[in-house]
Amino acid sequence: MGINLSQCFIAVDDHDKAIAFYRDVLGLEVRSDVGFEGMRWVSVGAPDQPDVAIVLEPPLADPNASDADREAVNVLLAKGLLRGVIFSTDDCDALFERVRASGAEVLQEPMDQPYGVRDCSFRDPAGNMLRFNQPRKG
């Protein structure tokens, strides 16, 4: 019995800004854009990983959530306290320069980590932390 990652979710407060970042800056492809009950879900993914998608979803994708819960999640998103994702790349430094040039908030410039990767991190337009790592040689 095999298990593979199919989808992961990232909360965004502005899907159009998120699409511009994930598609135009990171180079991911938009795979679907679906609206339902006043909410919107957009899936994006790397062209060479057709079976894995990141779903850009509303901060609280539950039509039955209370107003207080919606406000709490929006506050956490605005503070950048919701979890993001980690991407792998074959050129951390080049990716860093491309993303920085887009105006994204830099959290960490490329650096070698003791656990065997060179990585950097940014915030997406909604405030989610995204890390990009490259295995170190040797």
TrEMBL record:
It holds the Pfam family Glyoxalase. GO terms for molecular function: lyase activity. Keywords: Lyase. PROSITE patterns: VOC (PS51819). InterPro entries: Glyas_Bleomycin-R_OHBP_Dase, Glyas_Fos-R_dOase_dom, VOC_core. Residues 4-135 form the VOC domain. This is Putative enzyme related to lactoylglutathione lyase.
